């Protein structure tokens, strides 16, 4: 059996009908091709000048500081707390006080879970003239009740990590008035190619062969991706907003579909978490708080080797950010030892809406054998 990395298209797109009297989520956001572009757009719209320093967590994918540097910003990293992936608030404030050119702070909601100190941090940042940007790219369906004063100045989404889509970067601004986004008419070819790729992967997963998550095939796919990358991507280009693809738009307008996605992800998480605890492994987070829609189930592997074992047996386990951790962080291990340790120990297990009980039982059986 092969456990799929991403959700499949469960029905024909035409069945994703608009729910009457339903205001879709992200109806007041600006769409972009990716979450990274949305970050740059947020900094520009919040009037953060190029050359400013941006405080961000050390536990982060290298694509974020990479694009910040490309567009003329200076990333400053803060280590994770000892028992949490989130940086300590006092460390963030210390970094701001030690660097006069800090104008923005980026906080990350890891795997869909919120940093409970974000509200207090925002109040302090306003006093020192910094803006707060909240990265919700891991799970754009997570939401929490918060007063207007606790809201970040900007929120970044990468909706394709939660729904079935090839696009989905989005930006919400606290100062942004609601805007109507017209349905696009020229993205149909991208939707067709994306649908074909998801169908092909589904066939492979149902057949159970070949193991597309094995070490050899993973290496081959990675090399092909690197070969296709253009050197022109290192050159900053103007960031332009776009409309969501036709296929994504259909999903955003269907409340029944979105509720089903949330229900599947939460139920899969709780089912797998309970079994994981019985096996003796420890989840990264103690509980699934209200409003959290998990991207994955992160568990701690202090022994080492679980990711490799699961992948060789058809389960798409992975570490995040894994090999994509910023080089500066890895080279400064004394300053960022907590983030580096978590990057080595946290194993991400799939809980998306296409995961079924048979997949969960398969993962648990493999983990019991590994232990």
Description:
The protein is of the alpha/beta class. Helix content is 38%, strand content 13%. It has helices spanning 35-45, 63-70, 89-98, 118-127, 188-207, 215-228, 246-252, 255-279, 306-312, 327-331, 337-345, 357-370; strands at 30-32, 53-57, 74-78, 102-108, 131-135, 154-158, 169-173, 282-283, 296-300, 346-350. The longest helix is centred in the last third of the chain and has 25 residues, at 255-279. The two termini are 20 Å apart. The relative contact order is 0.18. The model is unreliable at 181-186 and 225-232 (pLDDT under 50).
- Strand-and-helix sequence, N→C? EHEHEHEHEEEHHHHEEHHHEH
Secondary structure: number of strands: 10
| Shape estimate | globular
Helix content: 25-40%
Summarize model confidence as the mean pLDDT.
Answer: 85
Q: Helical segment tally? A: 12
- The value of Rg in angstroms is 20 Å
Arrangement of strands in the largest sheet = 1-7-6-5-4-2-3
Structural class call reads: alpha/beta
- Indicate the low-confidence ranges by residue numbers: 181-186, 225-232
Fraction of residues in β-strands: 5-15%
Distance between the termini: 20 Å
Query: What about the largest sheet?
Result: 7 strands, mixed
Strand and helix layout:
Layout lengths: L29 E3 L2 H11 L7 E5 L5 H8 L3 E5 L10 H10 L3 E7 L9 H10 L3 E5 L18 E5 L10 E5 L14 H20 L7 H14 L17 H7 L2 H25 L2 E2 L12 E5 L5 H7 L14 H5 L5 H9 E5 L6 H14 L1
Parallel strand pairs: 2-3, 2-4, 4-5, 5-6
Antiparallel strand pairs: 1-7, 6-7, 8-9, 9-10
Helix pairs in contact: 1-2, 8-12
Summary tags:
single chain, 38% helix, 371 residues, 3-stranded antiparallel sheet
């Amino acid at each position: 059996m092969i456990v799929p990395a991403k959700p499949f298209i469960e029905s024909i797109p035409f069945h994703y009908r608009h729910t009457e009297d339903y205001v879709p989520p992200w109806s007041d956001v600006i769409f972009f091709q990716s979450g990274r572009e949305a970050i740059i757009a947020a900094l520009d719209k919040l009037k953060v000048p190029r050359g400013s320093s941006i405080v961000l967590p050390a536990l982060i994918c290298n694509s974020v500081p990479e694009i910040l540097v490309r567009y003329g910003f200076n990333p400053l990293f803060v280590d994770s707390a000892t028992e949490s992936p989130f940086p300590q608030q006092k460390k963030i404030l210390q970094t701001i006080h030690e660097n006069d050119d800090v104008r923005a702070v980026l906080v990350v909601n890891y795997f869909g879970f919120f940093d409970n100190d974000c509200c207090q941090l925002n109040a302090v940042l306003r006093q020192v003239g910094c803006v707060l940007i909240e990265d919700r790219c891991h799970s754009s369906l997570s939401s929490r009740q918060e007063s207007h004063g606790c809201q970040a100045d900007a929120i970044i989404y990468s909706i394709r990590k939660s729904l079935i889509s090839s696009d989905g970067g989005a930006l919400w601004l606290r100062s942004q008035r609601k805007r109507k986004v017209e349905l696009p008419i020229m993205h149909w070819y991208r939707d067709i190619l994306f649908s074909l790729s998801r169908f092909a992967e589904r066939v492979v997963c149902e057949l159970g062969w070949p193991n597309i998550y094995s070490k050899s095939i993973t290496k081959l796919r990675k090399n092909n991706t690197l070969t296709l990358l253009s050197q022109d991507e290192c050159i900053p280009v103007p960031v332009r907003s776009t409309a969501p693809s036709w296929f994504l738009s259909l999903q955003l307008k269907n409340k029944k579909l979105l509720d089903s996605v949330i229900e599947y992800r939460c139920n899969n998480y709780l089912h797998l978490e309970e079994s994981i605890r019985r096996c003796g492994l420890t989840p990264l987070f103690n509980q699934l708080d209200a409003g959290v829609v998990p991207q994955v189930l992160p568990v701690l592997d202090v022994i080492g080797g679980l990711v490799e074992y699961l992948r060789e047996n058809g389960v798409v386990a992975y570490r995040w950010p894994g090999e994509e951790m910023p080089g500066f962080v890895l080279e400064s291990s004394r300053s960022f030892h907590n983030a580096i340790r978590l990057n080595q120990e946290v194993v991400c297990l799939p809980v998306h809406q296409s995961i079924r009980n048979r997949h969960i039982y398969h993962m648990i059986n493999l983990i019991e054998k590994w232990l």
